[in-house]
Amino acid sequence: MDGSVYVPWFSVGEADEDAFGTLDGAWRRFVFVLRERAVTWPCDPEDTLILRPEETGFAHLLALLYAVRPGTNAISHVFGAFFDGQGVLGTELHNQIHIPLHGPVVGTFRVAGSPGRCAELTADWFERILRGQAGDLVAPMS
Predict the structure, then answer these.
(1) In degrees rounded to 5, what are phi and psi of residue 128?
(2) Is the pLDDT of residue 139 over 60?
């Protein structure tokens, strides 16, 4: 063994151990679908994270994507998707306190539907960000 620690995509919580098993229903499905999609992304699992409401002060689950400058470990932007069980609001966030920025560079992403559908569309949004296609990231509420 090389001594490295396994970090899953969209690890749940700030703790060393993933708390995926503590999630209920809609949140678990949302994270499960995001994890399935993320394995093909051009970033590392450590660049993704799930924060529960008790970790953020928001009433929603928060899926985070840290956009890292190529060839560095420097975070250029932080994007978050707030999931309430029925819909998602995605936007660029402050890199330390995870609150939405005013006038986000990539616009605001909004969708509604089942947890699986919300996760699929959120994954599409994150993928466009990672692939540098941030020009048209505003999705209508559906």
Answers:
(1) -60, -40
(2) no
Higher pLDDT, 106 or 41: 41
- Say if CB 49 and CB 34 are below 8 A apart: no
* Rounded distance between C-alpha atoms, residue 40 and residue 44, angstroms: 10
Residue 36's pLDDT band (cuts 50, 70, 90): very high
- Tell me the two tokens of residue 88: 């998602």
Q: What share of the chain is helix, strand, coil (3-state, %, to 5)?
A: 30, 25, 45
DSSP secondary structure string for all residues of 26-70: HHHHHHHHHHHHHTTSSS-GGGEEEE-HHHHSSSSEEEEEEEE-T
Q: Which residues pair with 64 in a beta bridge?
A: 49, 80
Question: C-alpha angle with apex 112: 11 to 84, nearest 5 degrees?
Answer: 45
Within 10 A of 115 (CB to CB), how many other CB atoms are there? 22
Query: Does residue 59 register a pLDDT over 80?
Result: yes
At 26, the amino acid letter reads A
Q: What are residue 73's phi and psi, to 5 degrees?
A: -110, 15
Residue 100 has pLDDT above 90, yes or no: no
